[in-house]
Write a structure and sequence with these properties.
By secondary structure, the chain is α+β, with helices and mostly antiparallel strands. It has a single domain, classed as 3-Layer(bab) Sandwich (Archease, Possible Chaperone, Chain: A, domain 1), CATH 3.55.10.10. Helices cover about 25% and strands about 45% of the residues. It is built from 2 helices and 7 strands; from the N terminus they run ββαβαββββ. It has a 4-stranded antiparallel sheet with strand order 1-2-7-6. Helix 1 packs parallel to helix 2. The longest helix is centred in the middle third of the chain and has 19 residues. It is globular and about 40 Å long. The two termini are about 25 Å apart.
């Protein structure tokens, strides 16, 4: 099973992330986000950040998780390449993300993500999990 893929949206980029369960799908969504920004193969997992998110449903949880990733990217000036997510009961999750400070001499500069959108976002569970999100570039 592929981890993620992209699809075209006017002035934005869409992504679909997959996993055998909700945890893996969220982890792959994180990987997809940071492969839009840079090449995650060149990001060393030397620093770790953990956070928790609670939302009112699956889609809001996905949105809030992706927003947190962008928040830490912008505030800590970091790129991330490893994602560990544990989705719990009641639409909550615990995440540990690993990466390093941005060094544009080392890291490939691809595309800046301005925001996560709710537009066409979904979480489907049927044997495996498929997530879809569109990011504003």
């Amino acid at each position: 099973m592929k981890k993620y893929e992209y699809f075209e949206v006017t002035a934005d980029i869409g992504l679909k992330a997959y996993g055998k369960d909700i945890n893996e799908a969220f982890e792959n969504a994180g990987l997809a986000i940071f492969n839009i920004i840079s090449d995650t193969d060149n990001i060393d997992a030397t620093k770790e950040i953990s956070f928790e998110v609670t939302s009112e449903d699956d889609v809001s949880l996905l949105y809030d998780y992706l927003e947190e990733l962008l928040f830490y990217h912008e505030v800590e000036f970091m790129l991330f390449s490893q994602f560990h997510v544990e989705v719990g009961d009641g639409y909550s999750l615990k995440a540990t993300i690993r990466g390093e400070e941005i060094n544009w001499d080392k890291h490939e500069r691809k595309t800046e993500i301005k925001a996560i959108t709710f537009h066409e976002m979904y979480v489907k569970r049927n044997g495996h999990v498929e997530l879809q999100a569109i990011v504003d570039l």
